[in-house]
Design brief:
By secondary structure, this protein is mainly α. It has one domain. The chain is about 75% helix and about 0% strand. The protein has helices at about 5-10, 15-35, 45-50, 55-70, 75-85, 90-120, 125-135, 140-145, 150-165, 170-190, 195-215. It is globular. It starts with a helix and ends in a 6-residue tail after the last helix. Residues about 220-223 have low confidence and may be disordered.
């Protein structure tokens, strides 16, 4: 992966935009904290609430992940771990992967059909130039490495791919290959959270450290 690609991604995620998203996430988490007396937010409590919903619970997980990957107001990791918690590692993995595919394709389609108005229209002149550069440089193989970037960067890459000349199936294959290992780890951690929370936390922390290490290895020019 070219160092310039990582530099471009960083340019398109200025501190003010990250702070805005962070503030919105804090508000949402505060609302959840306020509901703690009404809803049991512990792993066992969430399983007790969602498991009886059956297919509807699965639909909530899939739809929630898809929406968050287009509008990253809260970390998708919450629902990805939750899927393993409620549905077990294998079904949970399938559901998170399905939600990821839908969210990734939604971002791609939005950018491909309405990119000028929805994406470029919200960027400054300098950011538009950086975004156009990313659209030119992004490749199907590079998608695998770019998917180690979490949060709003995920959405940004989806939009850039949609505005590029990449075919949708090339984009989808690269995206799935890039996210599948991480999703499997997160759903496994969710499944273990009720029986062995220490191991679950260890797996999640190790996963985050590995992703940070991989992303730093491939973007030395952004330091």
């Amino acid at each position: 992966m070219s160092n310039s690609v990582w530099s471009t991604v960083k340019t398109l995620l200025p501190r003010r935009r990250l702070l805005w998203l962070g503030a919105l996430a804090v508000v949402i988490l505060a609302l959840l904290w306020g509901l703690r007396s009404v809803i049991d937010l512990t792993p066992s409590g969430l399983r007790a609430v969602l498991a009886p919903l059956g297919a509807w619970g699965a639909l909530v997980i899939v739809a929630g992940i898809a929406v968050i990957l287009v509008l990253p107001v809260v970390p998708a990791t919450v629902l990805q771990v939750g899927a393993g918690l409620v549905f077990g590692p294998w079904l949970g993995f399938g559901l998170t992967l399905l939600g990821d595919v839908i969210g990734a394709l939604a971002g791609f389609v939005i950018a491909r059909h309405w990119g000028q108005r929805v994406v470029r229209g919200r960027l400054s002149a300098a950011e538009q130039a950086a975004f156009d550069d990313l659209c030119v440089r992004i490749t199907p193989t590079g998608m695998i490495l770019l998917r180690v970037l979490p949060g709003p960067a995920y959405t940004l890459v989806s939009f850039a791919a949609g505005c590029s000349r990449m075919q949708w199936w090339q984009y989808l294959i690269g995206s799935v290959v890039g996210v599948a290992p991480g999703l499997l780890v997160l759903t496994l951690a969710g499944d273990l959270s009720t029986t062995n929370p220490g191991l679950a936390v260890g797996i999640a922390v190790a996963f985050v450290l590995v992703m940070v290490g991989v992303s730093r290895f491939f973007r030395p020019a952004t330091q």
